[in-house]
Specification:
The complex is a heterodimer of chains A (198) and B (173).
Chain A (H helix, E strand, L loop, with lengths): L1 H4 L3 H23 L2 H17 L10 H25 L24 H19 L3 H12 L4 H8 L3 H18 L1 H4 L4 H4 L9
Helix pairs in contact in A: 2-3, 2-4, 3-4, 4-7, 6-8, 7-8
Chain B lengths: L2 H12 L5 H12 L2 H18 L10 H10 L14 H19 L12 H16 L1 H5 L1 H5 L2 H10 L3 H13 L1
Classes of the chains: A mainly alpha (198), B mainly alpha (173).
Chain lengths: 198, 173
């Protein structure tokens, strides 16, 4: 980032390549819509670029960048909450019509794919139903694999408060996802001899 | 270790992000607490379920859109060399404005009247006389109590009532 501050455009491109995927994934899990997540990620990169001259390496670059991303995501969620209120639980997720990026195995049956998709959808909804700060804590801890100190810096809370947030979030998820606990994942359904085409 | 003490470190334990010492402490507690063992199992199931959500990739053209927006950002002109920061520029501008105001401030005051050269000369002559007579003024007490002066004055100038009587006599004549 210091190179970007010095005016090195190639360094900004390096930052873009390094953080585009983590940022888009984080924002997608926060706002549950890929198009919005990408718009917000663009905005994050733009703000980083605009603030390059004022950047001081007092905190980790990722802490600074994800704090911008978290604030943008929370504002977006609050702005669009009224739109989300009317969505049925049975409605498909945004962007679900697009082609799956992870190509399924050829031998996987359609019903298995449907089961898997439903299962992932339930998990996504459970994450999304968490209070905003708990959701951000879970996503940063579980998916971005950040340390407690860094997440606490992003969410502007103490490490103790963060641990409590995570504990409460997992308690809620444990209840919400209880129906899935004893159901094997789609990949495991077909792992038995009777599930495989001969 | 109590169950309440375990709560805050439980997620780190489940996600395998604890030190060896912390792990040992948690496991010692779990060995004797069925409720916490059940909780850990529940959290472990949650963690496994969260792992099932696949990551996404930014769509094609994401990088191009970011670069396009960055390229559209206004670039600093040649004057940027002189103005490294907005706040500094503002401070300098305010300092210059304050200096100009301070310099112009005496012009707003009413003009002080300048005395004419003749009046100046007269005033200086008066001052000189006053300084010259300072010795006399210092002997003011002596002068006011000097009887010889008052007597000689009385002798030369008759009292008013005598003046009046002599005047009447002359008019009667």
């Amino acid at each position: 980032m210091l190179d970007v501050k010095a005016g090195d455009e190639a360094s900004f491109d390096f930052l873009l390549q390094k953080y585009r995927s983590p940022l888009v994934n984080f924002l997608n899990r926060m706002v549950r819509d890929q198009a919005t997540a990408e718009d917000l990620a663009q905005e994050v990169f733009l703000r980083v670029y605009r603030a390059r001259k004022q950047y001081t390496p007092s905190a980790k670059f990722t802490t600074w960048m994800f704090r911008i991303a978290t604030n943008l995501a929370l504002n977006s969620v609050r702005d669009n909450r009224h739109k989300r209120m009317g969505i049925s639980l049975d409605a498909p997720l945004d962007g679900e019509d697009s082609a799956p990026l992870e190509l399924p195995a050829r031998e996987r049956r359609i019903d298995e794919r449907i089961i898997e998709r439903d299962r992932v959808e339930i998990i996504r909804r459970a994450i999304w139903s968490l209070p905003e700060k708990q959701r951000a804590a879970v996503v940063l801890h579980k998916y971005e694999e950040m340390e407690y100190a860094e997440i606490a810096g992003i969410l502007d809370c103490s490490e103790g408060a963060l641990k409590s947030l995570l504990f409460r979030a997992y308690q809620t998820l444990r209840v919400e996802l209880a129906p899935l606990v004893n159901q094997p994942a789609a990949g495991q359904v077909g792992s038995g001899a009777e599930g495989r085409p001969s | 270790m109590k169950c309440e003490d375990l709560e805050k470190g439980l997620i780190a334990y489940v996600e395998d992000r604890t030190s060896a010492a912390e792990r040992r402490g948690v496991e010692e507690h779990l060995a004797g607490c069925a409720a916490c063992r059940a909780r850990v199992e529940g959290f472990r199931s949650v963690s496994n379920l969260l792992d099932e959500v696949p990551a996404i990739e930014p769509s094609f053209g994401f990088d191009a859109r970011v670069r396009q927006r960055v390229a559209a950002e206004p670039r600093a002109g040649w004057y940027a060399w002189f103005v490294p920061q907005g706040r500094l520029a503002l401070s300098v501008a305010m300092l210059v404005a304050l200096t100009v105001w301070m310099v112009k401030l005496p012009a707003n005051r009413p003009p002080v009247p300048v005395p004419a050269p003749a009046a100046v000369a007269a005033a200086s002559d008066q001052d000189f006389q006053a300084i010259k007579d300072l010795g006399v003024l210092e002997n003011y007490d002596v002068l006011t109590k000097f009887d010889a002066l008052s007597e000689s004055a009385a002798a030369t100038t008759p009292p008013l009532h005598e003046k009046a009587q002599s005047g009447e006599a002359s008019s009667n004549d």
